[in-house]
Amino acid sequence: MAKAKARCRTRWPLRRPRILPFAVVAAAATVLALALFVLQLPLPAPVDFFSHSFSHDRSRSRSHHPYFSRPPYVPAARLEPASDICLKPTPFPFPISNIPLAASHPLTMALAAETTRVVSLFDFSDADVNAHVQEFLRQMSEGLKRDGTSISQIPTYVTGVPDGTEKGLYLAVDLGGTNFRVCSVMLNGDTTFNLTYNKVAIPKDLMVAKTSRELFAFLAKQIELFLREHHADHFESSTRRRHTASTPQGYRDEHIFRLGFTFSFPVKQLGINKGKLIRWTKGFDIPDAIGKDVCALLQAEIDRLRLPVKVAALVNDTVGTLMARSYTSTGKHRSILGGIFGTGTNGAYIEKTKNITKPIEGQYDTTTGEMVVNTEWGSFDNQLNVLPSTPWDRALDGSSVNPGIQMFEKRVSGMFLGEIVRLAVLDMMKNDEVSLFKDIDSSFNDWRTTTNISSESGVLRAWGLDSAILSVAASDNSPELSTLRQELENNLHVYNPSLEDAQSFKAVANAVVRRAARLSAVAIGAVALQSGKLDDPEEEVLDIGVDGSLVEHYPFFRDMIYEALVAVDGIGPEGAKKIRIGIAKDGSGVGAALIALVAQRMEKPGDFLADLRGDIKRSLDAMQANNAIDEPSMSTTALVVGGLIGVAAIAAIWYNRQR
Ligand code: ADP
Ligand code: MG
Question: Which residues line ligand 1 (CB under 6 A)?
Fold first, then answer.
């Protein structure tokens, strides 16, 4: 449509205007208009393909004209009652009492009925909530016993949560599913922090890049840009020092930034800054990264750019959220769960170490008797023992990059909700018995214009409907749904949608998100029950930190969660009152900084030798890789000399330490 319009505009002035045909057409139109006016017939709606926006003003300016004097929301047609025509169709199934009843028309009736049917397929009753909580607890417990279960229950080696007194300046990066954020965090030690950040959308082609290097090189470049922009002095001096320093102390300069790497994909964690990617989710698919240490992949690209940055900690965004919430929440109540409801969904909670009966490799602090566990609950019930499946859930799964996996996430999180709505709406549009986004008769549209949908509309394209519009639908409670209709135009290129179209869209969107919120309550409720703290009179509050655009921006998402929690056996109204769900603002950044701090504290004095050795090896590898890819090859002699100097340096340090 946009292209067509552009073409039109560029060609038009090139033609020489011919006045006569225009004059004839204008005269004919005037006569026709006068005739219609005298006969009081409705004007034919203009076929207005290039009209990309409507506004209140248009209807208001019409309303003073005698022909458009009726209020815009009163049905345009005054049909005589007939057996197949209903003047008062059933109101659409959402409780907005001030919305006037839809205009009369058999197809509008059919739209109302079809909307009710589609909405009912997303019903998720209190009994469903309870059945799901039981199954969730069962699958959680299975995950604590062995590997390879649907809820992975990955031990994170984090055995305590912060108390707000932590201090220092750290870097944090967050590879979510949609955005890459780079930030520096100054922890002030009094539960407050200062955060500076840059955010960039991850280019779609990098999500399915041929090699992981392409993605990680992009991430390292963003870190460089951030340092140059926000920490220029520090960056220049550190880079200079690093280039000239030949001693390990040079490398262990306090000006090397410790970086917490929030990586929100399933990882088998092997240490505080080491973890192998288990599988991609959220539409990513770069096969060569599977099984590799993602910290090493990032560090290699950081080193290639010679940045003064050490990847000190690998953090799952859920763990970061839990940490951040604990750091910032005041009072004696520490948080028990960090939950993400953004592109994807996942949660990390504090578990008693004795309940983790599967082997935990490596060393960890046993004194607290607790460990943070990353549930990877996006994969809850991949086997579909209980999860609801509409035809559109099945269609979405079939067209995803990972069919049969992340089945809970595919019903709950931002990346998928828009697509479920799109698939449902598309099926309704294809149904000839139903008038959705169709110009059956424009006189039934209170805006009195032609409804049409551009061939470039996101509704017609897989993954073309961003979940953000679902929030617009939910928050527009005006009688004419004008904000939503504007958004349908601007965002989805559905031009001049009728009130009934918007009502139907809103009802389907609400139903899909409501089911998602109630499923979210299943996960939160199960963890609250698992904590065993609901019945503990000592615990007045069970604090839960959440993050992600869906929970943050969708109106009343948390209220819908609470409503479902009340219905859970073992929680009820009293338990729900005890559960405090709060947004962990900037959770992933602050959380990653906190874990980088923990990692720094864990660095032992002798570690510098390993660091140095690793650093030299990385530099040599980077040089070799650079030579192989970018530059003419370096002489072997230079490499041998470089290597020998490195070995000599290690030997000298080792000798000194022995003495
Ligand atoms: P990330 O997962 O990369 O950390 P976010 O937490 O911002 O990023 O989540 C992005 C996801 O949230 C996208 O799938 C997007 O469609 C969805 N989203 C963004 N804004 C809204 C909104 N206002 N309402 C509902 N979903 C939203
Ligand atoms: Mg996130």
Answer: 176-179, 342-343, 414-415, 418, 466-468, 470-471, 548-550, 553-554
